């Protein structure tokens, strides 16, 4: 989880969350065949297509902080995805990316 998001989840008494975190970050994100960058791009596309902007608020800053995607690559991602997810979701993604890039650049 530290590699994907830059932080770790606190120990939880909740088995569901603990098992999910262990499996997702211990098994799925670390499988061979795709880089973390590849997985991040796929996830951003899925989240944008479903309008899950709250999770994009986690993924986009993590991609910037981890050096997986540059601001220009994120902007290009929004342009590309808009043509597949539709204008309302794509324009919302564009605005969100610009806001998160500005926050990242302010440090």
UniProtKB/TrEMBL annotation:
Spans through the membrane: none
Pfam families: CMD
InterPro entries: 4CMD/NDH-1_regulator, AhpD-like, CMD-like
Domain Carboxymuconolactone decarboxylase-like: 15-88
Highest rank taxon of the organism: Bacteria
Stated name of the protein: Carboxymuconolactone decarboxylase family protein
UniProt source species: Actinomadura keratinilytica
């Amino acid at each position: 989880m530290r590699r994907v998001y830059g932080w770790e989840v606190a120990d939880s008494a909740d088995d569901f969350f603990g098992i999910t975190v262990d499996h997702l970050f211990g098994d799925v994100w670390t499988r061979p065949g795709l880089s973390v960058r590849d997985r991040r791009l796929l996830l951003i596309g899925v989240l944008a297509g479903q309008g899950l902007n709250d999770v994009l608020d986690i993924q986009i800053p993590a991609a910037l902080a981890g050096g997986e995607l540059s601001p220009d690559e994120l902007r290009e991602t929004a342009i590309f995805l808009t043509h597949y997810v539709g204008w309302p979701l794509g324009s919302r993604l564009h605005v969100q990316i610009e806001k998160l890039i500005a926050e990242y650049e302010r440090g």
